[in-house]
Amino acid sequence: MGQLRSSHALGPITCLSIDFAYRQRLSRYPLARDGSGESKFHESGLLAQDIHAAVQLNWFVMSERLKGKIGIVTGAGTGIGRACAIALAREGAQVALIGRRRDRVEEVTREIGDSAFAIAADVSRTSEIEHLIDQTVRRFGGLNFLLNNAGVLHIGSAEQITEKQWDDTFNVNVRAVWLLSRAALPHMRKVGSGSIINVASTLGVVGARNRAAYAPSKGAVVLLTKSMAIDHGHENIRVNAICPGFVETELTAAVIGNAPDPAAIRRERTATHPIGRLGRPEDIAGVAVYLASDESSWVTGAALPVDGGYLAV
User: Fold this and answer.
1) Are the CB atoms for 166 and 218 separated by under 8 Å?
2) What are the residue numbers of the active site?
């Protein structure tokens, strides 16, 4: 069970925003009304306003589902990567946060605290991959999981996409996943197990208009995931993919914002998800925590849709 403690008594855990902490607490402990009419949490006995106050006073919500586990998160400065890094650390993991923009990953590192550190790196470059893996192992003492989240999106048909855009898409979305996974495997063998989590896409399962580079790259990630799961299952190294639908991030905000009618595009995208809303980065983070944890010890080779029902249509 998560606990609230003073930051002075805590180790490597996450500082959460007031809203995020409150919503996470609500999802675990249903509210009841006592005689005074005030909302209380059944298990914790804490008033809802106490949760807000605790976070404002620099207290934290912590758990130990990933206690003792060490991981790497790429593309950790914004969006899905940021949410995953925060969630993984909140559950007890020590994490190396990787991103091209040092200021972004350092900001997330400060938010998490001592259980994270930032590395500015371009994951499409082999030399930088070897460096970030070595840094992580030296800093924390090993490697248990890898979350391959970094990605790029170039919009266009087969005729419109340039060679440079095609190469950039596959270098970041596919080649980097392969190179990082390959570099991580020896360290996972040393600890006797491991979990590689690849952020693919629903568009790695079905096609879409003007995604002639992006969709094939994510399809390659799905099949790389399955192939590696077969190759390394006997080593107790699991490899899975998360296939998000349309999640609201800076990347997708640009897609909507650059459209001739952003409001119409938002309505159109929302309508393709039966659950009736677009995704949030935290929707993906919960699945990442599950796949990094021992709870998923018999899950490998899966491409898990987290898509508000998009692929069910």
Assistant:
1) no
2) 214
Residues 39 and 130 in one domain: no
- Do 144 and 51 lie in one domain? The reply is no
| Confidence at residue 214, expressed as pLDDT on a 0 to 100 scale | 98
Enumerate residues 6+ apart whose C-beta is below 8 A from 201.
Answer: 214, 215, 218, 221, 243, 244
What residues does 32 pair with on adjacent strands? 40
What is the domain count for the chain? 2
Distance in angstroms (rounded) separating the CA atoms of residues 57 and 281: 25
Helix 163-170 × helix 214-232 angle, to 10° = 30
Q: pLDDT of 69-98, one tens digit each?
A: 999 999 999 999 999 999 999 999 999 999
CB neighbours of 64 closer than 8 A, spacing ≥ 6?
A: 91, 92
> What does the angle CA 289 – CA 293 – CA 297 come to, to the nearest 5 degrees?
130
Structure tokens at 304: 């898990």
Beta strand ranges found along 56-101 (DSSP E): 60-62, 70-74, 94-99
Domain holding 54, by residue range, is 3-61
Taking only the tens place, the pLDDT of each residue in 24-77 is 444 433 333 333 433 333 334 444 444 444 444 334 456 789 999 999 999 999
Burial of 184 (0-12, 13-18, 19+ CB in 10 A): buried
Whether 193 and 256 map to the same domain: the answer is yes
Strand 194-199 relative to strand 3-5: parallel, antiparallel, unpaired? Answer: unpaired
The HSE-up count of residue 75 (CA atoms within 13 Å, CB side) is 23
Residues 306 and 185 in one domain: yes
DSSP H helical ranges for 141-280: 163-170, 176-191, 214-232, 250-257, 262-271
Instruction: State how far the Cα of 21 lies from the Cα of 50, in Å rounded to an integer.
Output: 11
